[in-house]
Amino acid sequence: MATKGCPANAFLYNGTLCACDPGRYFLNGSCALFNASAGTWGISSNVESTSTFLSTVLPLDSIKRVTQSQAVLLEATLVTLVLWLMFCVVIRFVKVKDGKSIWFRIRWWISRLDFFYATKHWMDDGTVVRKRKTELGGTFSVASWILFAGLLTVLLYLLITKRSIEVHRMRPANAPDLLEFVNDLEFNITTISSMSCSHLRGLDTLVTGIPGFIDYRVFPLSTYLNYHCYNTSRGPTISLKCNNCQVPRRDHFVSWDFVDLPNEPATAVGFEFSFTAKDHSDDRHMSYVRGTLESSSNGTLKTFRGPDLNILKIHLFPRAYNNMHNLKLIQPLFYDFVPGSSLSEASDLMSSLQSSKSGIVNTTLYMRYLADYIVEIDKESVNGPVTFLADVGGLYSFSVVIFLYLLLQFEARFKKFRYEDSAMRNIKNRSRAQRNWDKLRKYVAYTWAPTSLDCSNMSSKGHSKSTVDSSHGIGPLHRTEQNSVPEATEKDRSKLAGSTARYNHKHGNSADGHQQSRQ
User: Fold this and answer.
1) 271-282 pLDDT per residue, tens
2) Which of 14, 117, 241, 381 is most buried (CB neighbours < 10 A)?
3) How far from 253 is each of 87, 120, 214, 289, CA to CA, in Å?
């Protein structure tokens, strides 16, 4: 329950002043809880080129967001394959009586899709026959294409995401090599608190070397760095910048304090920082480290306040990117955070706020330069053109062979599959012969004496008057025309016989197929 006159999660001290509980700070009139999540750290050497051929042609970022792993592509391939096989199984249960139904047309076109397995099928006698296409072969051919396309997509995805590997090599550094590392360095740190830059003291000194050693030095900070402080909604932010900085061979220390002001105590609950390095001649690439620091441990909330130093340790080391036109960057790396004085009990914090001796928040940035070695970075291609073609050929062979094995097993165990193409071909030939026969009747009726040709009697139930004889032409029709047209001359009859012979020569095969199907 909140103390009278103070917001929730706050307490009263010195009779009239309010302070937030440990781990909380004033934000917009209330005590906000600061809790840094584990995913706030980020360390990178952002030096990859921003424009590549693949990135300009293909939306690689969108592809990576959609396909976060190989499992997504493989699952999509498996689902498509199962749906296709289920579709082919379902349509086989549909009864097909003639070649006019939509189901027969679908099954026929599936058999036409037999690209891979149109050879070496079983017959009833177990012998190998000439090339022929079957519905089962078409089903497995399309299944092979689906599997091959899915596996090829996974291969291309791996080629895009892991087309090269980064190789690191270390070599000893000397003074001339280190002088080539000229970077623009920038360090920003925000003290999460209710304070402002008016609490800041002591940001004016740079210490180099280790105290007590011969190389220990103290310099004015302004001679090396540009620094300033500005206020944010989460607390004061200190910015340190150095242009054209070379790699020094000693450790650096920069310290500052936040002190109590009248009715405004110096307290903090955490820190947010970022350290970036850019090549002075190439600002398109940079190396950086950023993160969030808090004092809580094991679920115990704490507030920074007291004389002990809060030390943030950053290690810097030179890196040469040979694959980026010999780009040279100083890589920052977060090493350690040593928390200073902190309070976890509200009573202890109240006692500290009522005492002026502990009214301070000390912070020190400790930068150590690991310049004894230079890390050289290069990229080596993982897959060459020959390797890629070999992988594609292996995927193709695997896709074809696995369904060839299934086809052989089906045709060896089920006799119906051995002659299913014969049944479909017979239906197709009968329907084709019927269409050709209908065209012949229409041709004869349109060319000679349409009034004397009774089309109603030319239906499938009455073929006796218009039966085609492959050896004698159109005999009954000729006799009917003679009876109905006695005035026809011998010249006309010879024209009719010649036209009939020419048509029989042109469409003889279709008529013969129709006559054989009737028999």
Assistant:
1) 999 999 988 777
2) 117
3) 72, 82, 16, 18
Task: Give the angle 296-302-304 at the CA atoms, nearest 5°.
Answer: 110
Q: Pseudo-torsion of CA 444, 447, 451, 456, nearest 10°?
A: 30
Per residue in 160-209, pLDDT tens? 777 677 788 888 888 888 888 888 999 999 999 999 999 999 998 999 88
DSSP code for 190: E
The Cβ-side half-sphere exposure at 428, using a 13 Å CA radius, reads 14
* Pairing of the two strands 373-381 and 164-172: antiparallel
Cβ–Cβ under 8 Å, residues 274 and 316:
no
Helices 135-161 and 70-92: crossing angle in degrees, nearest 10, is 170
User: Which pair of structure tokens corresponds to residue 466?
Assistant: 């218009």
DSSP 8-state class, residue 274:
E
Output DSSP code: residue 327.
E
Structure tokens at 472: 């004698």
For the chain, give every domain's residue range: 10-43+169-379, 67-163+385-418, 421-518
Distance of alpha carbon 230 from alpha carbon 249, whole angstroms = 31
Cα-Cα-Cα-Cα torsion 495, 498, 504, 506, nearest 10 degrees, comes to -100
Helix, coil or strand: residue 290: strand
- The answer to whether 333 touches 315, Cβ cutoff 8 Å, is yes
Closest CA to 47 of 371, 369, 378: 378
